[in-house]
Design a protein that fits this description.
It is built from 12 helices and 10 strands. The chain has about 375 residues and is of the alpha+beta class. It folds into 3 domains: about 120 residues, Acyl-CoA dehydrogenase/oxidase, N-terminal domain (Butyryl-Coa Dehydrogenase, subunit A, domain 1, Orthogonal Bundle), CATH 1.10.540; about 110 residues, Butyryl-CoA Dehydrogenase, subunit A, domain 2 (Beta Barrel), CATH 2.40.110; about 140 residues, Butyryl-CoA Dehydrogenase, subunit A, domain 3 (Up-down Bundle), CATH 1.20.140. A hairpin with a 2-residue loop joins strand 2 and strand 3.
């Protein structure tokens, strides 16, 4: 499934996950704080640039989408919360800059982000606008020298720690989706503020916030794209790619739950034998493994298509749907195998189950994925 380079990439990151991330995962979840130390450590090893060429400070990998999916899967095996933050930094928050930013924006924001010196975010969702992007109310008004942004965003990963944020705003509400554009906002700009840090029941150490833009001036050079109504299309392309990586996050978390349940089934003794000897438990584990393998195979199939430059609109949505829903089921079965101990905070199973809900919602709900595929089928 993976070529030799990708397998070697997996071995290296898996070793770091086992040695550095897994031992701290429970503490990260309990504290609910952005893990600056681990984030910078991972950046120093060059992993944040896995998706990009060497010419802009990336790793220059031959199969970047596949390797970044591996990165997301392995990190999520250790901590979904930490992995979600890395995925935001190494993909969504930087992809738009890489694709549609000029050299000056690369030097100011992208290169420092890939080195871990600046933290990025991507803000599209609003309190009254989620899946319906055409109803976005955050307004970018054209003024001399640039734009003034007013509005608010919600559910923004890295919201309280970001140094820059790519913001989706409308320049003309009457044009609907065609009126949307992308703007890079330095969070030190006057008028920008964090409304509140959001308290989630899942991915605790992944920072999420509500943002406020009150007459925030953005210079013309910080608008991404050509200004011809392509902002939403650019944002959509970025989100499409991100779905592959969200699928990989789900697989990694599901794998962690499966591994824990398998170990427990071999160790926990009831009625004079390990519970793994009972057919009811065996069937659960086999079903879990089947779902995991299907989700993993399809996720990397789609990543491979992306590496070859092939269209992935339908495939990325399917990958996210299959992996997110399937691995949530894996985690539910895993917790069931643990029984009462699965409900205890001293065991990681409750964290795996909580975190498994993030891929179902983040980056577009499972029903939105179904809608995307249905439209691609001409329905």
């Amino acid at each position: 499934m993976l070529d030799q380079d990708a397998q070697e990439f997996r071995r290296h990151i898996a070793r770091w996950v086992d040695e550095r991330l897994v031992p701290q995962a429970e503490s990260l979840d309990r504290k609910g704080e952005f893990p600056h130390e681990l984030f910078h450590e991972l950046a120093s090893l060059g992993y944040l640039g896995a998706l990009y060429p060497e010419s802009i400070g990336g790793s220059g990998l031959a199969n970047p989408y596949t390797c970044f999916a591996v990165l997301c899967e392995e990190l999520s095996r250790g901590s979904m919360g930490f992995a979600a933050g890395v995925c935001m930094q190494g993909s969504t928050a930087t992809y738009t800059l890489y694709e549609w930013g000029d050299k000056a924006l690369h030097e100011r924001f992208l290169l420092p982000a890939l080195r871990g010196e600046r933290i990025g975010a991507f803000a599209i969702t609003e309190p009254n606008s989620g899946s319906d992007a055409a109803s976005l109310r955050t307004r970018a008004t054209n003024v001399e020298g640039g734009y003034v942004i007013n509005g608010s965003k919600i559910f923004t990963t890295h919201g309280t720690v970001a140094d820059f944020i790519t913001v989706v705003a409308t320049t003309d509400p009457a044009r609907g989706l065609k009126g949307l554009e992308l703007f890079v906002v330095d969070t030190k700009t006057k008028g920008f503020s964090v409304g509140r840090k959001l308290d989630k029941f899942t991915i605790h150490c992944s920072d999420t916030a509500e943002l406020v833009f009150d007459n925030v001036f953005v210079p013309e050079e910080c608008r991404l794209g050509d200004g011809e109504g392509g902002g939403f299309l650019n944002a959509y392309k970025s989100l499409t790619v991100d779905r592959v990586f969200t699928a990989a996050l789900a697989v990694g978390n599901g794998q962690a739950a499966y591994d824990a349940a398998l170990r427990y089934a071999k160790e926990r003794v009831q009625f004079g034998q390990p519970i793994g000897k009972f057919q009811a438990v065996q069937f659960k584990l086999v079903d879990m493994l089947a779902v995991l393998e299907q989700a993993r195979l399809y996720t990397y199939y789609v990543a491979g298509r992306a590496d070859r430059g092939e269209p992935i609109t339908t495939e990325a949505a399917l990958a996210k749907l299959v992996a997110a829903d399937g691995c949530n089921d894996v985690c539910q079965k895993a917790l069931n195998i643990f029984g009462g101990y699965g409900l205890m905070n001293e065991y990681p199973m409750q964290r795996f189950l909580r975190d498994s809900y993030f891929p179902i919602i983040g980056g577009g709900t499972s029903d939105i994925m179904r809608l995307i595929v249905a439209r691609q089928l001409g329905l």
